[in-house]
């Protein structure tokens, strides 16, 4: 584990503004440039594909209203924590309730940005309370739904977005499909063949695999799958072997987001008024 505490970095944007012109960052120790986050990043990448993860992260970076939905309460907190960790060196400073109880669903119409999570069981009772500006992220079905009044997110610089997306796909792009007993290559070959029936059957089977897996997330005891389980057709091993010295894929994922922020903010002085 890293040493306790953190370094505070104070950056003066414009001297004439005094204290108002200072931006403060809290950085990890110099020999550990990526902050240690003891979270199972693979869970988020199993629930959502890379495109939807990028959209959810960018919505939070733009301080929008985001609501996570899942049938498994344990997924809500884990995925919410992972998404907020990807904002580093920024911090989520708005309303944050990873598991929102039914009695507090009126808060989903709050006038400020929020990141909340709600169980699928409670979701029907909250529909009337959800703001029209809310982005709903379904963790079970890999679906993002935009409220009728959600404004378009500002465009990301194309080259930097492609670089970030490429790094995520290179390091963790296979996790989503492996959780469904497939590889990206299997899906691409099925699409290239033009056989819509075979593709539909493959995706239906993948969906059944994921539904069976996700149903057990909240179980106190993770029991073995039944002998006829479709999950037994594939043995996922996404962890790095202890004998390997290469960088962990999840360190690389965090570093990709950090590099994006560095590349985006490094020339900020060019956009400040002179004088």
Description:
The chain has 275 residues and is an alpha/beta fold. Helix content is 37%, strand content 13%. It is built from 9 helices and 7 strands; from the N terminus they run E-E-H-H-E-H-E-E-H-E-E-H-H-H-H-H. It has helices at 41-47, 50-61, 73-85, 123-126, 158-172, 175-178, 184-193, 196-214, 249-265; strands spanning 7-12, 22-27, 65-70, 95-97, 114-119, 134-138, 143-146. The chain has a 5-stranded mixed sheet with strand order 4-5-3-6-7, covered by helices on one side. Helix 5 (158-172) packs antiparallel against helix 9 (249-265) and helix 7 (184-193) runs antiparallel to helix 8 (196-214). 20% of the residues are buried. Residues 221-227 and 229-245 have low confidence and may be disordered.
Looking at this protein, list some descriptive labels:
7 strands; 275 residues; 9 helices; two-stranded antiparallel sheet
Short description:
The chain is of the alpha/beta class. 37% of the residues lie in helices and 13% in strands.
Class inferred from helices and paired strands: alpha/beta
**How many E-type strands?**
7
Question: Please, what is the average pLDDT?
Answer: 81
Low-confidence stretches: 221-227, 229-245
Percentage of residues in DSSP E strands: 5-15%
Overall geometry: globular
Major sheet attributes: 5 strands, mixed
- Report the end-to-end length measured between terminal Cα atoms: 46 Å
Instruction: Give the strand line-up of the largest sheet.
Output: 4-5-3-6-7
Proportion in helices: 25-40%
Gyration radius over CA: 21 Å
Order of helices and strands: EEHHEHEEHEEHHHHH
């Amino acid at each position: 584990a890293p040493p306790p505490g953190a370094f505070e970095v104070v950056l003066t944007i414009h001297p004439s503004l005094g204290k108002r012109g200072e931006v403060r960052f809290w950085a990890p120790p110099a020999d550990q440039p990526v902050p240690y986050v003891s979270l199972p990043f693979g869970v988020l990448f199993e629930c959502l594909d890379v495109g939807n993860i990028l959209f959810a992260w960018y919505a939070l970076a733009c301080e929008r209203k985001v609501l996570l939905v899942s049938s498994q309460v344990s997924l809500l907190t884990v995925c919410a924590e992972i998404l907020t960790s990807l904002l580093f060196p920024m911090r989520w400073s708005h309303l944050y309730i990873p598991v929102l109880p039914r009695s507090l669903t009126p808060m989903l119409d709050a006038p400020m940005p929020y990141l909340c999570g709600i169980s699928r069981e409670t979701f029907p009772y909250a529909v009337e309370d959800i703001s029209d500006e809310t982005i709903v992220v379904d963790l079970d079905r890999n679906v993002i739904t935009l409220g009728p009044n959600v404004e378009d997110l500002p465009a990301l610089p194309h080259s930097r977005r492609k670089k970030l997306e490429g790094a995520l796909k290179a390091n963790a792009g296979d996790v989503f499909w492996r959780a469904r007993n497939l590889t990206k290559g299997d899906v691409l070959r099925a699409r290239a063949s033009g056989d819509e029936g075979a593709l539909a059957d493959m995706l239906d089977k993948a969906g059944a695999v994921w539904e069976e897996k996700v149903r057990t997330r909240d179980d106190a005891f993770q029991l073995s799958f039944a002998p006829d389980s479709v999950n037994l057709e594939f043995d996922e091993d996404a962890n790095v072997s202890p004998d390997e010295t290469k960088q962990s894929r999840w360190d690389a994922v965090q570093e990709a987001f950090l590099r994006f922020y560095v590349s985006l903010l490094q020339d900020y002085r060019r956009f400040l008024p002179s004088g």
